[in-house]
Amino acid sequence: MSQMRPPVVMERLRRKVLGPLFDRLGYDLVPAAPDWSHRPTSPREVQTLLASAAAILERDLVAAGLTPDGTVLDQVRTFWSLIPTAPVRQRRGGSGFNGALQLYVAMRVLKPRFVIESGVFRGLTTWVIRQACPDARIFCHDPDLSGLQYRDRQARYSAADWSTADWSMLDPAATLAFFDDHVAQGRRVVEAHARGLTRLLFDDDAAGHRIHAHGGPAHPTIAMITGPERSPEPIRWTRNGRHFEQPADDALVQQAAGLIARSHAFDDLHRATGYSPARLTSVTLRGGS
Asked: At the top level of its lineage, which domain of life is listed (predicted)?
């Protein structure tokens, strides 16, 4: 009981004192707990959540041209058991339950021998990749590695942009690149193609009419490059007082569009799990140069 008292005291303090104070200042004060720490516990509700998520993921995998090895439901069940043991505790930024689940299942299907991860943040996605691909060689790139809560013992870390590294020692056909780095996604497509990579995963892909709700707009996004909303008019939006514009005739958009053979934005899974929406997109390129 004594181990439980400090969190209870802090929660009372947050609700009675700190919460109202921050509310008057125009801010929300919430506990720094990951969303997966809140979960159903009765067997029927757990089974409904897992089965619903698995059914959506199965459809997404087919649409992305991916063939599962084994049942997706079994993979979702495994992830459900794994995620409470995650060494990263994040509330703001990074992946939540849905994003981590999508990445886990995609990695289990793709089975890459080599993974290039651009954008590491606190290390949760690196941990997810390791759980899904225990034998893969992982290369983690992020300009700021000071906030890591999980550092993979076998991964190679670098603060340099992934595009500056020499990848000649990797087999492109056995390599997957995962981008969660808030850099123009069209640029990442061009860079990956130049290095012979054909299988990519992107986080934070956003259509033009939704990008205003995303932090760090990495435009042009995959949706802007491939989506039916492409028109002669530029896409404009405002976020945090800043104005952004994505020209329709951008040369990068045209170049990246010619390199993408197939793309699919996964369902956000919120209706199945109740957790914060995820934004994973699978991209297949036409073949590296």
From this structure: Bacteria
